[in-house]
Amino acid sequence: ILNVEQSPQSLHVQEGDSTNFTCSFPSSNFYALHWYRWETAKSPEALFVMTLNGDEKKKGRISATLNTKEGYSYLYIKGSQPEDSATYLCASTGGGNKLTFGTGTQLKVEL
Amino acid sequence: DSGVTQTPKHLITATGQRVTLRCSPRSGDLSVYWYQQSLDQGLQFLIQYYNGEERAKGNILERFSAQQFPDLHSELNLSSLELGDSALYFCASKPGQGVGGYTFGSGTRLTVV
Q1: pLDDT exceeds cutoff 60 at B13
Q2: For A102, which of B42, B45, B103 is closest by C-beta distance?
Protein backbone atom coordinates (compact mmCIF):
# COMPACT_ATOMS: atom_id res chain seq x y z
CA ILE A 1 0.00 0.00 0.00
CA LEU A 2 1.46 3.33 -1.04
CA ASN A 3 -1.22 5.62 0.28
CA VAL A 4 -3.49 5.81 3.28
CA GLU A 5 -6.81 4.23 2.42
CA GLN A 6 -10.02 4.28 4.41
CA SER A 7 -13.15 2.20 4.11
CA PRO A 8 -15.99 2.46 3.84
CA GLN A 9 -16.25 5.87 2.20
CA SER A 10 -19.56 6.50 3.95
CA LEU A 11 -21.76 4.77 6.45
CA HIS A 12 -25.32 5.24 7.69
CA VAL A 13 -26.21 3.59 10.99
CA GLN A 14 -29.08 3.78 13.43
CA GLU A 15 -28.76 5.31 16.86
CA GLY A 16 -27.47 2.68 19.27
CA ASP A 17 -25.66 0.64 16.61
CA SER A 18 -21.99 -0.13 17.02
CA THR A 19 -19.80 0.40 14.02
CA ASN A 20 -16.21 0.29 12.87
CA PHE A 21 -14.07 1.65 10.06
CA THR A 22 -10.75 0.62 8.60
CA CYS A 23 -7.61 2.54 7.82
CA SER A 24 -4.82 0.92 5.77
CA PHE A 25 -1.41 2.53 5.61
CA PRO A 26 2.13 1.73 4.41
CA SER A 27 3.69 -0.56 7.02
CA SER A 28 7.25 0.18 5.95
CA ASN A 29 8.92 3.15 7.61
CA PHE A 30 5.94 3.60 9.93
CA TYR A 31 6.14 6.18 12.71
CA ALA A 32 2.65 7.06 13.96
CA LEU A 33 -1.02 6.69 13.11
CA HIS A 34 -3.51 9.46 13.84
CA TRP A 35 -7.30 9.47 13.95
CA TYR A 36 -9.24 12.74 13.64
CA ARG A 37 -12.91 13.57 13.89
CA TRP A 38 -14.11 16.28 11.50
CA GLU A 39 -17.55 17.79 11.88
CA THR A 40 -19.00 19.92 9.10
CA ALA A 41 -17.95 23.57 9.31
CA LYS A 42 -15.46 22.83 12.08
CA SER A 43 -11.77 21.92 12.14
CA PRO A 44 -10.48 18.35 12.43
CA GLU A 45 -10.10 17.32 16.05
CA ALA A 46 -7.48 14.81 17.19
CA LEU A 47 -8.88 11.60 18.66
CA PHE A 48 -5.90 9.28 18.96
CA VAL A 49 -2.24 9.05 18.11
CA MET A 50 -0.80 5.54 18.17
CA THR A 51 2.72 4.32 17.58
CA LEU A 52 3.14 0.78 18.90
CA ASN A 53 2.00 -2.43 17.26
CA GLY A 54 -0.95 -3.79 19.22
CA ASP A 55 -1.73 -0.39 20.70
CA GLU A 56 -5.32 0.17 21.79
CA LYS A 57 -6.72 3.54 22.79
CA LYS A 58 -10.11 4.50 24.12
CA LYS A 59 -12.00 7.74 24.59
CA GLY A 60 -15.53 7.27 25.90
CA ARG A 61 -17.44 5.16 23.39
CA ILE A 62 -14.72 5.42 20.74
CA SER A 63 -11.71 3.13 20.59
CA ALA A 64 -8.97 2.32 18.11
CA THR A 65 -6.50 -0.48 17.50
CA LEU A 66 -3.27 -0.58 15.57
CA ASN A 67 -1.44 -3.30 13.63
CA THR A 68 1.80 -1.87 12.29
CA LYS A 69 3.06 -5.15 10.84
CA GLU A 70 0.18 -5.51 8.42
CA GLY A 71 -0.53 -1.80 8.15
CA TYR A 72 -4.06 -1.29 9.41
CA SER A 73 -6.00 0.40 12.16
CA TYR A 74 -9.63 0.04 13.20
CA LEU A 75 -11.79 2.72 14.77
CA TYR A 76 -14.79 1.45 16.76
CA ILE A 77 -17.80 3.42 17.95
CA LYS A 78 -20.01 1.69 20.48
CA GLY A 79 -23.68 2.70 20.75
CA SER A 80 -23.57 5.39 18.05
CA GLN A 81 -25.31 8.68 18.81
CA PRO A 82 -26.41 11.41 16.37
CA GLU A 83 -23.62 13.65 17.70
CA ASP A 84 -21.10 11.05 16.43
CA SER A 85 -22.04 12.04 12.88
CA ALA A 86 -18.86 13.36 11.31
CA THR A 87 -16.07 12.43 8.93
CA TYR A 88 -13.40 10.29 10.56
CA LEU A 89 -9.94 10.78 9.12
CA CYS A 90 -6.89 8.67 9.63
CA ALA A 91 -3.37 9.75 8.78
CA SER A 92 0.05 8.19 9.06
CA THR A 93 3.53 9.57 9.35
CA GLY A 94 6.44 7.52 8.09
CA GLY A 95 9.82 8.74 9.11
CA GLY A 96 9.23 12.34 8.20
CA ASN A 97 6.94 14.74 9.90
CA LYS A 98 4.17 15.17 7.39
CA LEU A 99 0.86 13.46 7.90
CA THR A 100 -0.54 11.60 4.92
CA PHE A 101 -4.32 11.58 5.22
CA GLY A 102 -6.89 9.17 3.93
CA THR A 103 -10.04 10.55 2.33
CA GLY A 104 -12.10 9.76 5.41
CA THR A 105 -15.17 7.77 6.35
CA GLN A 106 -18.32 9.86 6.54
CA LEU A 107 -20.58 8.59 9.33
CA LYS A 108 -24.24 9.51 9.60
CA VAL A 109 -26.11 8.34 12.69
CA GLU A 110 -29.86 8.43 12.27
CA LEU A 111 -32.53 8.48 14.95
CA ASP B 1 -11.86 27.45 19.59
CA SER B 2 -8.87 25.20 18.93
CA GLY B 3 -6.29 27.91 19.61
CA VAL B 4 -5.12 27.95 15.99
CA THR B 5 -6.39 31.07 14.24
CA GLN B 6 -6.72 31.34 10.49
CA THR B 7 -7.70 34.44 8.58
CA PRO B 8 -9.59 35.18 6.50
CA LYS B 9 -12.30 32.51 6.80
CA HIS B 10 -13.49 33.06 3.26
CA LEU B 11 -11.82 34.60 0.24
CA ILE B 12 -13.14 35.11 -3.25
CA THR B 13 -10.73 36.32 -5.88
CA ALA B 14 -10.19 36.31 -9.63
CA THR B 15 -7.85 34.17 -11.69
CA GLY B 16 -4.35 35.57 -11.96
CA GLN B 17 -4.51 37.30 -8.60
CA ARG B 18 -2.37 36.77 -5.52
CA VAL B 19 -3.62 36.16 -1.98
CA THR B 20 -2.09 35.66 1.45
CA LEU B 21 -3.53 33.31 4.03
CA ARG B 22 -2.53 33.79 7.63
CA CYS B 23 -2.18 31.36 10.50
CA SER B 24 -1.43 31.96 14.17
CA PRO B 25 -0.49 28.69 15.87
CA ARG B 26 -1.62 27.62 19.31
CA SER B 27 0.38 29.36 22.01
CA GLY B 28 3.70 27.59 22.52
CA ASP B 29 3.52 25.49 19.35
CA LEU B 30 6.63 25.79 17.21
CA SER B 31 5.58 23.64 14.24
CA VAL B 32 3.13 24.88 11.64
CA TYR B 33 1.76 22.77 8.80
CA TRP B 34 -0.29 23.82 5.78
CA TYR B 35 -2.78 21.49 4.12
CA GLN B 36 -5.04 21.85 1.11
CA GLN B 37 -8.34 20.13 0.67
CA SER B 38 -9.79 20.22 -2.83
CA LEU B 39 -13.14 18.79 -3.83
CA ASP B 40 -13.29 15.01 -3.43
CA GLN B 41 -9.71 14.82 -2.25
CA GLY B 42 -8.23 14.18 1.15
CA LEU B 43 -6.10 16.67 2.99
CA GLN B 44 -2.93 17.20 0.97
CA PHE B 45 0.21 18.26 2.79
CA LEU B 46 1.78 21.43 1.41
CA ILE B 47 4.58 22.56 3.70
CA GLN B 48 5.86 22.53 7.28
CA TYR B 49 7.78 25.10 9.30
CA TYR B 50 9.46 24.64 12.63
CA ASN B 51 10.56 27.66 14.63
CA GLY B 52 10.92 29.78 11.54
CA GLU B 53 12.62 27.24 9.29
CA GLU B 54 11.15 25.18 6.49
CA ARG B 55 11.31 21.50 7.50
CA ALA B 56 9.29 19.53 4.97
CA LYS B 57 7.70 20.14 1.63
CA GLY B 58 4.84 18.28 0.05
CA ASN B 59 2.88 18.80 -3.12
CA ILE B 60 3.24 22.56 -3.09
CA LEU B 61 3.14 24.32 -6.43
CA GLU B 62 5.90 26.73 -7.41
CA ARG B 63 3.26 29.48 -7.51
CA PHE B 64 2.76 28.95 -3.78
CA SER B 65 5.16 29.97 -1.06
CA ALA B 66 5.07 30.21 2.70
CA GLN B 67 7.05 31.53 5.62
CA GLN B 68 7.01 31.49 9.39
CA PHE B 69 7.83 34.69 11.20
CA PRO B 70 9.74 35.23 14.49
CA ASP B 71 6.44 35.47 16.40
CA LEU B 72 5.67 32.00 14.93
CA HIS B 73 2.71 33.03 12.83
CA SER B 74 2.81 31.74 9.29
CA GLU B 75 1.60 33.01 5.93
CA LEU B 76 0.81 31.04 2.81
CA ASN B 77 1.10 33.07 -0.39
CA LEU B 78 -0.74 31.87 -3.46
CA SER B 79 -0.04 33.67 -6.74
CA SER B 80 -1.18 33.54 -10.36
CA LEU B 81 -4.30 31.89 -9.08
CA GLU B 82 -6.14 29.38 -11.22
CA LEU B 83 -9.66 28.00 -10.90
CA GLY B 84 -8.21 24.70 -9.67
CA ASP B 85 -6.68 26.43 -6.66
CA SER B 86 -10.14 26.79 -5.16
CA ALA B 87 -9.99 24.73 -1.98
CA LEU B 88 -10.10 24.74 1.77
CA TYR B 89 -6.67 25.58 3.18
CA PHE B 90 -5.94 24.39 6.70
CA CYS B 91 -3.19 25.32 9.05
CA ALA B 92 -2.25 23.01 11.91
CA SER B 93 0.23 23.35 14.72
CA LYS B 94 1.93 21.15 17.28
CA PRO B 95 4.46 21.83 20.03
CA GLY B 96 7.51 20.23 18.45
CA GLN B 97 8.40 17.64 15.87
CA GLY B 98 7.74 14.49 17.85
CA VAL B 99 4.71 12.26 18.06
CA GLY B 100 1.55 14.09 18.97
CA GLY B 101 -1.77 15.18 17.58
CA TYR B 102 -2.04 18.28 15.45
CA THR B 103 -4.33 21.14 16.37
CA PHE B 104 -6.12 22.43 13.30
CA GLY B 105 -7.46 25.86 12.57
CA SER B 106 -10.91 26.31 11.08
CA GLY B 107 -9.52 26.80 7.59
CA THR B 108 -9.70 29.41 4.86
CA ARG B 109 -12.15 28.72 2.04
CA LEU B 110 -10.60 30.11 -1.16
CA THR B 111 -12.78 30.50 -4.23
CA VAL B 112 -11.13 31.54 -7.48
CA VAL B 113 -13.56 32.84 -10.09
Answers
A1: yes
A2: B42
